[in-house]
Amino acid sequence: MEKCAWALAGPLEEQYHDLEWGVAVHDDRLLFEFLILEGAQAGLSWATILKKRAGYKNAFDDFDVETVAGYDAIKIDELLSNPDIVRNKLKVQAAVSNARAFLKVRQEFGTFNDYIWRFVDGRPVRNAWKSAAEIPAAMPASDLMSKDLKRRGFKFVGSTICYAYMQAVGMVNDHTIDCFRYGQV
What we know:
mainly alpha, 2 strands
């Protein structure tokens, strides 16, 4: 078996592909981490975000959603001067407002996991792509997720970002059928 073609871009991407991408995530902390990282990636390559992942983990208090939700203007300014993350004011502010919206979702649904997995009826969508060129940028479920997240006050959650999020947290299996990970996740 081969690997998905994009996973061969570099060692970080390969490791991420082999160990994480497409694995079902049900832990709220990790779901929040990927929400922050996918939003940060908008307009950039995933390789850029993977290189800064440790910086994000440190800068955003190990993605502790309660802590991030309490960030004030001083903390946001501190983050904007941190070279270990993408220093985009809108993305940093979105991370904080998304933390607050995330907590509201948890109040309503018990866990963010219970909320987010509803978009795929609680189990991964298993696609059967022969090549990476076939993989779409969005799907009806990511459209619905995006619309609902935006309604709840989330930012940087367009349908394409939501679809990438769904792939990352295993809501969608988009490993190509010839990839060794296809049957494992």
